[in-house]
Each structure stands twice: as structure tokens, then as C-alpha cells.
Amino acid sequence: MGRSKVRDRIVETASKLFYKNGYNSTGVNEIISESGIAKATLYNHFKSKDDICIAFLDFKHAAFMEDIEAFTKDRNEGVDQILALFDYLQLFFQDSEFNGCWGIKTVAEIPQNNQKIRTVLQGQKREFLDLIIALVTKNLKIDHQEEIKTTARRIYLLYESAVVESHLHQNDWPIKEAKEVCSQIII
Amino acid sequence: MGRSKVRDRIVETASKLFYKNGYNSTGVNEIISESGIAKATLYNHFKSKDDICIAFLDFKHAAFMEDIEAFTKDRNEGVDQILALFDYLQLFFQDSEFNGCWGIKTVAEIPQNNQKIRTVLQGQKREFLDLIIALVTKNLKIDHQEEIKTTARRIYLLYESAVVESHLHQNDWPIKEAKEVCSQIII
DNA sequence: TTTTATATAGACAGACTGGTCTGTTTTTTA
DNA sequence: TAAAAAACAGACCAGTCTGTCTATATAAAA
């Protein structure tokens, strides 16, 4: 998707800064000085800071989906592939750059009326839910479509709370507990 | 705790605006015009906007703890009092003023380095967890202290995800699913 | 080589922010 | 009634922010 080298560098730099310091705490001047490009160049590629925000969300989401898909695929088929979600999160948590859920935090920062960014995030979470649905379908022997969906939703909720709460409490007990509840659900 | 009528009015107005429109989107000028007080008066009661933020968090938290304690107490002893947490949330969700978790959203808005507000929120979540521990102790016949804590933490996680995700998806399925998983845990 | 597109640096506009200060008026207390 | 405390209005300050603009340099395409 990278339409140009310069554009990629902007998105990568902005993503790093947005995730580390927050959307509102990161000014466009910081983005341009950090990525070593001119302001006019930035506004040549993005019509507004909000547009960079969407590119940031897309960038993080795409990397996340790719990573987690690869990570789960490496496990033995069955419940392991589902529980791997929480092992992935555990690694993510231990990373020094872990800073919670970029999506939820970013949406919390933007004004209420900015529906576009909200919609983008909803779509991404929906995609993540679909990934879990695929995992459940493949790894658990469940007949009813409705039960698959329900199970996936519950795993999704557990995962999401594990991200947010491990970040908030600066401790990995939410990840461990969420994984444990998950295993109770799927076994 | 209301040290004065004026102070109370400031906190109530600021809380309403912070919760509805967000912390950064609400300026002190808006707070003073909405509450009909002078700017000097505001800065006579609070040394900075951050201080108003803490008062806001305290105000919302105190009301929440009081409400949820009263709400659960009204149910029959046993699992009902625990599941009532999610019924309370369902009512909260249906309220036109529902706007997610004020704490998580506010902390997401403030700069990384503002440790004070983070610490306040952690303390409040810890208090909420203690409330759940008390509920579990009272209503479930669990002997081991460690198992009580573990159970409470899991209920806490389910509740938190239900708040955040029902808000994000603008739908109450997270509340229903969280409640269902909770009942599986405690029965 | 000339043209065209895209990069550069950085000044600038204009709106908005949190917070201070002066001076006046009202309310409470003694 | 006199004194003290706390409210008022609002100008003002210093700084931040996004986004625009000018003018120049570079690199690719014709």
C-alpha cells in the first residue's frame, strides 16, 4: 500500500510518536522534525493531521493482524492456537514499547463529533473479531454458527480487557486471568 | 466533602463537560461560562486544570461506588448480587448520557508524564476491585482467600471490557456476553 | 537540455489554550 | 455597622497548535 517512500516514513514516524506520546501530545512539527521532512511535504501527502491519524491506525492494525495471525498459526491446532492470543499479548506487554491499545486510546483523545476515526476503529475491531471467529471455527469443533460467534465474542472481550487493564495496572495479572477464563470457556 | 457551594458547582459542571466532550476538548473558559462563575474564582479553588480533573474523577467515582453498592444490595443474596453488576451496567448503557469509562478515557487524554492522575485512577479501580472482592466474599461460599481474589479479578475484567466495548461498538452485546461468562465463573 | 514534479526550509496567520492580574461588588462574619 | 473574605468581570499574557504560503533546490522525465 505504501504509495511512496516519503509517505511511509511519515506514517512510521507518526505512528511511533502517536503510540508513545499520544495523538494530541504529538504535534505536526514534531512529526516533520523527527522524520526529517518538510511541512509542505507532509501536507502534500496528507490533507490534515486527522488523515495521518487514520494512516497510523491502519498501519498499526495491519501489522498487528499480520503478527497475530503468524503467531497463532505456529501453534498446534486446537485450543493452543486460541490461547496463543494471550501468549502473544504477554510478549507484547513485556516489550518496553507496550503502551496499551492504540485504538481505544486514540479514539478517547479525539473530539466526540469526529465520527470518521471512530468508524475506522470499529471496523478494525470487527476485523479482529473475525480473526477470532476464524480461529474458533478452525480449532474448536462447534457446529452452530451462533455458538461460534458467541464464543469468539467472549474471547474478544477477554483479550481486550487484558490489554487495557494490564496497561492500566502496569501488571500482567489481567493477561494471566483472561487466559485462564478463556481456557475455561473453550475446554 | 463539598468544601463550598461554588466548588461543588464547578466540579459538577466540569464533570458533566469532561465526561460528555472529553478533558482536552473542554476548556476552562467553557467551564466558567457554563457554571456561571469567574475565572479567578475557579483558580481560587483549584490551582490548575489538572486539579479539576482529579476532582472530576473523584466525583464520578464516589457516585459510582455509592450507586453500585446500593444497587447490588437490593438483590437477593447469592449470585444475583454479583450478576447485578451487569444489570447496573445495562441501565447505565441505556442512559442517553452513557459515554464509556470516564477514567480510562481521561487517562488516555493526558500526557504520559502526568503520573498523578494515573495513580488516582489506579487507586479508584483498586477500590472497585475491593468492592467486588467484598461481593464475592459475601455471596459465594469460597474458602481460600486466594480464590476469592482471583474470582473477583476475573469479574472485574469482564465488567471493564463490557463498559469499554459496549461504548465502542455502540451495542449492548458485550454486556450480555460478559454477564453470561460471569455466571459461568461463579456457578 | 528543458520541463515538470516533488522535495527543502521556515516564516506566517489565526485560532485557541491555561493561567495571571486588576479592580469592583457582594456576601459573610464579628 | 465595620471588617474581612470571597465572589465578580474580563483584559491580558505567553505559549501552543494546525495549516498555508513563499521561495528555493533537487531529481526525474521529456
Word description of this protein:
- Two copies of one chain form a homodimer.
- By secondary structure, chain A is an all-alpha fold.
- Chain A has a single domain, classed as Orthogonal Bundle (Tetracycline Repressor, domain 2).
- Chain A has nine helices and no strands.
- Chain A has helices spanning 5-21, 28-35, 39-45, 49-73, 79-94, 102-109, 115-139, 145-169, 173-186.
- The longest helix of chain A is centred in the first third of the chain and has 25 residues, at 49-73.
- Chain A binds chain B through residues 20-22, 24-25, 100, 104-109, 111-112, 121-122, 125, 150, 153-154, 156-158, 160-162, 164-165, 168-169, 173-174, 177-178, 180-181, 184-185, and chain B through 20-22, 24-25, 100, 104-109, 111-112, 121-122, 125, 150, 153-154, 156-158, 160-162, 164-165, 168-169, 173-174, 177-178, 180-181, 184-185.
- Chain A binds a DNA duplex (30 and 30 nucleotides) through residues 6, 24, 27-29, 37-41, 43-44, 48-49.
Q: What is the structure about, briefly put?
A:
Chains A, B: It comes from Salegentibacter holothuriorum. Chains A, B: Pfam families: TetR_N. The structure is a homodimer of 187-residue chains. By secondary structure, chain A is mostly helical.
